[in-house]
Amino acid sequence: MALFMFRTFLALSVLTCLPVIGYAQTSSGLVDSNPKEQYYVIKRSLQAMYDRGEIRSHILPADDKYDLVLCLEVVNYLGPFEKANSLTGDLTYLALEIVIWRSDLKALGYPEEVWRPRLIEYEGRQLNAIVQGSSGSDDNVVISVRWQKDLVAALNGYRRQSRPSLKEVVARGGCGAGEISVRVSLEPRNGRVFFIPVFFYQLCQMQQLDPDNPDRCDRWHEALDGQLTYLAGYYRYLARWPDGATRKGTISVTLKNADTAVVIRKP
């Protein structure tokens, strides 16, 4: 009887632990379990996308000013399934800021000694605030706004004194994002299709997870009723049919192809 109870207890213990162990081995679980370490994985993923041109520079040739504020562009990489103010969303937004600012300020011609120490200080403070759950606090928002003003002042001070030909730097924001819907259809229609933002696909690769395995790369979502909404950016898709046939690919969702149909044909 005692042996039976011990075996029952052991079996229940294993079953109880399985979901936790399984989740810890997923993309989401890795971020939740060690957000500070995973932040740098996220940043490397975004840098790889920037290097491939999948993240655009914020330098606008027609504008004589450079705007530091990225608005809500993070949704272009998180997709409609991940909240922008989630842990992953906050880490991604910070990494996106650093990747774009670092690349753009260098391309604009501002010397690293003017902005690099300030970016390092900002990144470290914001990362600690995210991990501690205080990134959205009023105090942190005030500090961040003040930091942006100080960086703008430092950059423009250098411009006035040393290189007046450089673009003026501002922190004005004011941009907005449109709602984009994409209709998806399969031929034949008896299949299922799943989508994942390219950022999360890249992140799973950086986390050394199989990006095509939804059990580990748990950012895939099915397009229900052949419709995806609130999209922008690049997406990977995986279509499956009952006979085992599959098709994979990438689509780019922009305002130019909004409200259009994407047809995925069985190979």
Structure description:
This protein has 2 domains: 141 residues, no CATH class; 85 residues, Immunoglobulin-like (Sandwich). It is an alpha/beta fold. The chain is globular and about 70 Å long. The chain has 8 helices and 9 strands. The protein has a 4-stranded antiparallel beta sheet with strand order 5-4-7-8. Helices cover 48% and strands 17% of the residues. Helix 3 packs across helix 5 and helix 5 runs antiparallel to helix 6.
Features:
8 helices, disordered N terminus, 2 domains, alpha/beta, four-stranded antiparallel sheet, 267 residues
The spatial strand order of the largest sheet comes to: 5-4-7-8
Number of domains: 2
Major sheet characteristics: 4 strands, antiparallel
Task: Give the end-to-end Cα distance, rounded to a whole number of Å.
Answer: 58 Å
Fraction of residues in H or I helices: 40-55%
Class of secondary structure makeup: alpha/beta
Q: Compute the average pLDDT.
A: 83
- Morphology: globular
In short:
By secondary structure, this protein is α/β, with parallel strands linked by helices. The protein has eight helices and nine strands.
Explain the layout of strands and helices.
Blueprint: H1 2-24, H2 27-33, H3 35-51, E1 65-67, H4 75-78, H5 87-108, H6 112-132, H7 138-162, E2 168-170, E3 181-187, E4 192-197, H8 198-206, E5 221-222, E6 227-229, E7 233-240, E8 246-253, E9 261-265
Parallel strand pairs: 1-2, 3-9
Antiparallel strand pairs: 3-6, 4-5, 4-7, 7-8
